[in-house]
Amino acid sequence: MAKKRKINAESIVSEAERHLSIRDVWNAGSAEKLTFFIMGFNQLKHKQFAKGAMFLLLEIAFLGWLAFSGISALSLLTTLGPNKKMTTGLDKDGIPVTIQPDNSVIILLWGVLAILIIAAFIVLFIQNYKSNKHLVYLTQTGQHIPSNKEELASLLDSNLHKTLMAVPLLGVFLFTILPTLYMITMAFTNYNKEHAIAFSWTGFTSFGQILSGNLAGTFFPVLIWTLIWAVLATATTFLGGVLLAMLIESKGIKGKGMWRTIFVIVFAVPQFVTLLLMAQFLNTQGALNNLLMDWHIISEPIKFITTDSNAWVSRATVIVVNMWIGIPVSMLTSTAIIQNLPQDQIEAARIDGANSFRIFKSITFPQILFVMTPALIQQFIGNINNFNVIYLLTGGWPMNANYNSAGETDLLVTWLYKLVFGQTQQYNVAAALGILIFIVNASISLIAYRRTNAFKEG
Q1: What are the start-end ranges of the H helices in 249-364?
Q2: What is the pLDDT of residues 313-326, one digit of tens each?
Q3: Quick one: how far is CA 38 from the chain centroid?
Q4: How many Å is the maximal CA-CA distance in the chain?
Q5: Dist CA 252 CA 359 (whole Å)
Q6: Which of 52, 185, 311, 376 has the smallest set of CB atoms within 10 Å of its CB?
Q7: Where does 162-219 show beta strands of DSSP type E?
Q8: How does strand 87-90 pair with strand 96-99?
Q9: What distance in Å separates the CA atoms of residue 280 and residue 250, rounded to the nearest whole number?
Q10: Residue 454: which pLDDT band, with cuts at 50, 70 and 90?
Q11: Which distant-in-sequence residues (6+ apart) come within 8 Å of 124 by Cβ?
Q12: Taking Cα atoms as reference points, which of 119, 113, 330, 123 lies closest to residue 242?
C-alpha cells in the first residue's frame, strides 16, 4: 500500500509540475528569467554547480561555434559553394594563379552537421527549461532542492540510464544520424562523376530519373525481381527449416543431436566463404558441371551463373543456394518451438482420428507461424537488402542490355552499389534509390506487422 501511495504521489507531483506554464516560470523571479538567456543560471544560484556549469559551458561553446563557423556553414549550404568551375585570377602580387572550385562535398557535410548541432542545442535548451521549471516548482511548493552532491550521485542511481546512454547516443549521432542525413541531402543534388567536386541543388530530379526518366526501365523490373526474390527466399528457408525440424524431431529418428549439428555446421561457416565456394562449385568449369558430364547426365556445362546464362536459371540458382544457407537457422528456431508445443492438443487430435498431416496443418504449423511471424517479417526485409548472396554469388549476372548498370539477378541494393562504384558513379541517383528502398522496406514492415496477431493482441 505504501508503495502504491508513493507512486500515486509521484504522479500527482508530475501532473502538478506539468501545469506550470512558460509564463509561470518567467514570472517566478529574475534568476528564472535570466536562465532563458544564460543557461544554467538558476541551477548555479541553487548551488547545482555541475548541472549549471554544463548548461552554461555548452551554451558558450555553441555561440562561439555559431559566430566563427556555424553561420558560414549555413550560408554556404544554400548554394553549396559559389565557385563551380576552375578559374584563373591574380594573387596579391599580381601573379596569375589557378582558383580551384569550391568543394561541395565538404560544404554539404559541414552544413548538415551545422543543422544537427543547432537541433542538438534546441534539445539542450528544452532540457535547461525543464530543469528551470522543476526548480521553480520545488521552490514554490517548499520541497527540498537537490544539492550539487545529490545531483552528481543521481547520475549513478536514479539517472543511471542517462549516464549509460550518453556515449551510445553520441555514437548514434555521429555514425548513424549524420551519415543518413548526408545521404538524404545528396539525393537532391547533381553529385555524380561529372560533378565530383562542385555540384548544385537540383530538387527531385534524381527521383524523376528513377521513377519516370532514363532509369525507370531498370528500376521497376529490378524492384519486381527484388520482391519476388524476398518472398521466395523467405518462404523456402522457412518451410524448409520447419520440415527439416519436423523430420529430425520425428519418432524413430536416432541421433537427433548429431543431425542438428551437421546442419548447423553450414550456418557456422562464414556466409561469404560459403558463397564464394558455391560460385566456384557452380561455375561452367566447376565441380558440379564436371561431375554431371563425367556421369553422362549432360553433354555440355550448364550455365548457372555466367554473363550469358538464362535469367531464370540464375535466379533459381541463387534461391537454392540461399536455402542452403538459410534453412539451418529456421530449423533451429522451429525445433525450439516444436519441442515446446502443447502435447495434450496433439494427443487429443490423434485420439479424434487426425493423421500426421492434419495435426501438422491444424496445430503444429499455425503455432510455429504465430511465434515466427515477427522474425519472418524481419527476414523478409533482410532478404530485400540481401547484398551478400547476390553480389558474391552472381555479381548480378546475367547482364541485360536494356538495364542501366544492372543485371538480371541484381537486387535494388546491389544495383545501388553499382551506381556508386561502377563507371557512371551516379552518387545522387544512388542516394535517391537508397531513400526509395527505405520507403519500400518501411511500408512493407508496417503493413505486415499491423496484420500480425502480436500487434492485434498488443
Answers
A1: 256-268, 271-281, 287-294, 311-338, 343-351, 356-359
A2: 999 999 999 999 99
A3: 38
A4: 103
A5: 18
A6: 311
A7: none
A8: antiparallel
A9: 36
A10: low
A11: 39, 55, 58, 59, 62
A12: 330
- The torsion angle over the Cα atoms of residues 326, 329, 334 and 337, rounded to 10 degrees, is -150
pLDDT band for position 6 (50/70/90)?
A: very low
Match 548447423 to its residue by C-alpha cell.
264
d(CA 339, CA 332): 11
Average pLDDT, the chain: 91
Three-state SS letters, 129-171: HHHHHHHHHHHHHCCCCCCHHHHHHHCCCCCHHHHHHHHHHHH
Question: What SS3 state is found at 227?
Answer: helix
pTM of the model: 0.89
Instruction: Please check the confidence at residue 345 and state whether its pLDDT lies above 90.
Output: no
Q: What is the pLDDT of residues 408-446, one digit of tens each?
A: 999 999 999 999 998 889 999 999 999 999 999 999 999
pLDDT at 458: 59
Q: Report the candidate in 238, 265, 257, 254 with the shortest Cα–Cα distance to residue 331.
A: 238
Is residue 192 classed exposed, middle or buried when 0-12, 13-18 and 19+ CB atoms within 10 A define those classes? middle
Alpha-carbon radius of gyration of the chain:
31
Can you list the domains of the chain with their CATH numbers?
Answer: 14-186 (no CATH), 209-457 (1.10.3720.10)
